[in-house]
Specification:
Helix content is 44%, strand content 16%. The chain is an alpha+beta fold and 386 residues long. The chain has 3 domains: 100 residues, Helix Hairpins, CATH 1.10.287; 158 residues, Cupredoxins -  blue copper proteins (Immunoglobulin-like), CATH 2.60.40; 98 residues, Cytochrome c-like domain (Cytochrome Bc1 Complex, Chain D, domain 2, Orthogonal Bundle), CATH 1.10.760.10. Strand 8 and strand 9 form a beta hairpin. Helix 3 runs antiparallel to helix 4. The chain starts with a helix and ends with a helix. Bound molecules: copper (II) ion (CU). The site of copper (II) ion has 7 residues, from loops.
């Protein structure tokens, strides 16, 4: 009985599929229509090809099954003797040819549209790195704004937390689980925005389905893409090129604001940049206590370093342990050098990503945590000219 019911459900689903095109969207099986003219063009092309393929499939299989049934051996023991028909051959060459041309024309139009990166109002340099995105505004009032966009879903939701007795518990997943960031890319509505896409370490890919934009981020190359979104709103995407351990943890969030709100946002960012610079300068001028450096250092370590070096500095796969490491327990200058300038095998350069005070704090933390007991204190001023 259960099977019969399932069969009915399956049939009903299939029927509603065939009858109503909207059923696709509702069932979330189909490509999404997206939020831009190009994404609509892509969607329409997809549907056009889909229906042409469906019709061809039904016709070809229909003729095939009909022939197998109508000309079965029991009915026609004597096979027909004809072969070769110029008319039929002409028909089955001409029709596919016309169909292919019919598909190539709109597809080429859309491709040309996608590739037209000219006359952009806003240009943003997007750099993928393990495992976060960097956005840098290249022109206009926004020139000079640059920031990293990191996953903001709490670790407790996807890695869980281990309590004192060793039990692992997970926080309830949020609405935008793994699709939320601390600082989204902000662009103006109704303006053509060009993305210059590149990468710092390995291949990444910047993919926002609602814009129909998916562009490979390749170290040493700059690829282009563009969008023009009419509706303000929040659009989400993900890195779409397997880029290592945390590939699934570098989402993309784009906030499209009305041109007025965008202008306000730009002004605020510029004020923030100035404020942050002043704060960093003030912090760097101070001499920090060991306690303060350790507290700040732990915070920086957990958010920026633990993903590669392990929560307790124990190392993960190819990423070296810092607990007991020669560099973290040897001469301070070597330690500062690798954190400031990065390494050959994937250690990022942190100068510019972290303030001098944050770098000093995290180095102090690493030199005085786990089994490392150097007693060394590194001050922001020690980082200043490195
Ligand atoms: Cu990536």
């Amino acid at each position: 009985m259960a099977l019969g019911k399932n069969l009915k459900v399956a049939l009903a689903t299939t029927m509603s599929f065939i009858v109503s095109q909207n059923a696709f969207a509702e069932l979330n099986f189909n490509l999404r229509e997206g939020a831009t003219r190009v994404s609509h063009e892509v969607y329409d092309l997809h549907m056009l090809v889909f229906w042409i393929c469906t019709i061809i499939g039904v016709l070809v299989f229909g003729v095939m099954f009909y022939s197998m049934w109508a000309h079965r051996q029991s009915k026609h023991p004597e096979p027909a003797k004809f072969h070769h028909s110029t008319v039929v051959e002409l028909i089955w060459t001409t029709i596919p040819f016309i169909i292919l041309i019919g598909l190539a024309i709109p597809a080429t139009k859309t491709l040309i549209d996608i590739e037209d990166n000219s006359k952009a109002d806003v240009n943003v340099l997007i750099t993928g790195s393990q495992w976060k995105w960097n956005y840098k505004y290249m022109d206009g009032d926004a020139k000079g704004i640059e920031f990293y966009s990191n996953l903001s879903t709490p670790k407790a939701q996807y890695e869980g937390v281990v309590d004192a007795s060793g039990n692992k518990t997970f926080e309830e997943k949020g609405e935008h689980y793994l699709l939320e960031v601390d600082k989204p890319l902000v662009i103006p509505a109704g303006k053509k925005v060009r993305f210059l896409v590149t990468a710092k370490d390995v291949l990444h890919s910047w993919f926002v389905p609602d814009f129909a934009v998916k562009q490979d981020a390749v170290p040493g190359f700059i690829n282009e893409a563009w969008t023009k979104v009419d509706e303000p709103g929040i659009y989400r995407g993900q890195c779409a090129e397997l880029c290592g351990k945390d590939h699934g943890f570098m989402p993309i969030v784009v906030e499209v604001k009305s041109p007025e709100d965008y202008a306000k946002w730009v002004a605020m960012q510029k004020a923030d940049v100035a404020k942050a610079a002043a704060a960093a300068e003030a912090a760097a001028a101070q001499s920090w206590s060991m306690e303060k450096l350790m507290a700040k250092g732990e915070e920086v370590f957990n958010t920026k370093c633990a993903s590669c070096h392990g929560a307790k500095g124990e190392g993960i796969a190819i990423f070296p342990a810092l607990d007991g490491s020669k560099i973290a327990t040897g001469p301070v200058d070597d330690h500062i050098k690798i954190v400031v300038h990065g390494g050959q095998k994937g250690m990022p350069a942190w100068k510019g990503q972290l303030t001098d005070a944050e770098i000093a704090a995290v180095i102090t933390f690493e030199r005085n945590s786990w089994s490392n007991k150097t007693g060394d204190i590194v001050q922001p001023a020690d980082i200043a000219n490195k």
